[in-house]
Amino acid sequence: MTGNLKDRPTDTAPKGWVKILGLGPGDESMVTAQVQEVIAEATDVVGYIPYVKRIPERPGLTLHATDNRVEVERATHALEMAAQGKRVAVVSSGDPGVFAMASAVFEALELADQPSWLELDIQVLPGITAMLAASARIGAPMGHDFAAINLSDNLKPWSLIEKRLRLAGEAGFAMGFYNPRSKSRPHQFARALEILREACGGETLISFARDVSKPGETITTVTLNEATEEMADMRTVVIVGNKDTRRIGPHVYTPRYARDEG
Amino acid sequence: MTGNLKDRPTDTAPKGWVKILGLGPGDESMVTAQVQEVIAEATDVVGYIPYVKRIPERPGLTLHATDNRVEVERATHALEMAAQGKRVAVVSSGDPGVFAMASAVFEALELADQPSWLELDIQVLPGITAMLAASARIGAPMGHDFAAINLSDNLKPWSLIEKRLRLAGEAGFAMGFYNPRSKSRPHQFARALEILREACGGETLISFARDVSKPGETITTVTLNEATEEMADMRTVVIVGNKDTRRIGPHVYTPRYARDEG
């Protein structure tokens, strides 16, 4: 084939990219088609070990599974590979924009301070986030205004978390909590429950959704007065309703309306 | 084939159900496989006209498209049909649990006060909600704790919305707003911007995402000081960052960390 010089691409280097993907809560039928397509096109997949395990191996695809708490190193590695022309899928469970890898990639981009990296094709593809997958299994507890709070104090002071719980209660938000409890900070969740009882009232409903959409899923709803810290672990998403949240048959829902100022 | 009486189902009436589905923000490649499967099994689809238009016609499927603001009537109709043995898909855009049809179905179930309906198979299947689809296109503005607020005062007093904006600002939440502005209440969004400037500071970034994932999508990010009410309409999702939200290249993101008490 012939062609004049003008029509030829001026840069024939392979076009790398970073696409930050949400794999949803666990059930493969909850992954979007656009995410599946990107996985099929990728040369490299990076992510936390259990999420990378969800990606089927195939020729031409290199899997880079890393441990938790190395998000910025992992993100930097993804950017480096994209700059070399690789097509890199960064995988998160749930939605990458909700307490997951999307912010870590942009933090890494800022820290790297490499002007050429700002030209890289970086895209975020959403997924079903754990809080909304849990909400769907419970009924519709987030059916009114709500707040999403990461209860881990790895990256922010615990005092700020306490302040947010109080203000969210005062605002009458339903709430979804990620990372409610871990072995390294077993008593903070008990303290969170104490604050919630004060801020929302002890009769407010709280749901514990463990392993949502996975084998062994459990959903438990009790009042804040009945809730104990053992009901949550790191595989649990916790959802607290507002004062109008109620049961109807086996379902729990928050009405769309609010009759007064809360 | 033979079988003894014990093995036969005791009830051979057709098993009806109501499944409340999230179609995502608009792009068909953002619909999950489980939602596609339910649409393929349904005998009836109910929903607001533009969402029902997204469902392909086929023999054996009846489409029931209704106008906006009749959510509880539509939900009651869905429950009635399921009680008659029909397989009813209630369709919402985005996620049905976020300012959409899931709460309306449970409200209708409660209002109907029909004990047999409490036995109906009612399930909610999540979808990609507009706020998180918009967040992905912007970068990662919801990468830290956040609140989701419906700015319509159809179902709650405007004074409660003002209170929630102030408290969410005080908490340092990023915020996502649904239904920011309509013709029937053109000046409330200007008032919301005023409150946000006071509560969050005028240099805080605000993004307007219109027709996310659809043809003609536009994304605009400015500071709260630069924002005007005309930037939003009912097809816009509005996202406000926190004080750490920043630009890096063409992206806007909120860091995962918070260095102090906000």
The H-and-E topology of chain A, N to C, reads as: EHEHEHEHEHEEHEHEEEEE
* Coarse structural class of chain A: alpha/beta
Oligomer: homodimer
Sum up the overall morphology of chain A in one term: elongated
Largest sheet of chain A: 5 strands, parallel
Count the beta strands of chain A. Answer: 13
Give the terminus-to-terminus CA distance of chain A. Answer: 72 Å
The whole-number mean of residue pLDDT values of chain A reads 94
Please describe what this structure looks like:
2 copies of one chain form a homodimer. Chain A is an alpha/beta fold and 262 residues long. Helices cover 28% and strands 24% of the residues of chain A. The first copy, chain A, has helices at 33-41, 49-52, 71-83, 101-112, 130-138, 158-171, 188-200; strands at 17-22, 44-48, 62-66, 87-92, 121-125, 139-140, 146-150, 174-178, 205-210, 218-223, 236-240, 246-248, 251-253. A 5-stranded parallel beta sheet of chain A has the order 3-2-4-1-5, sandwiched between helices. In chain A, helix 3 packs across helix 4 (101-112) and helix 6 (158-171) packs parallel to helix 7. The longest helix of chain A has 14 residues, at 158-171. The radius of gyration of chain A is 22 Å and the shape is elongated. Chain A starts with 16 loop residues before the first strand and ends in a 9-residue tail after the last strand. At the A-B interface, helix 1, helix 4, strand 5, helix 5 and strand 6 of A face helix 1, helix 4, strand 5, helix 5 and strand 6 of B.
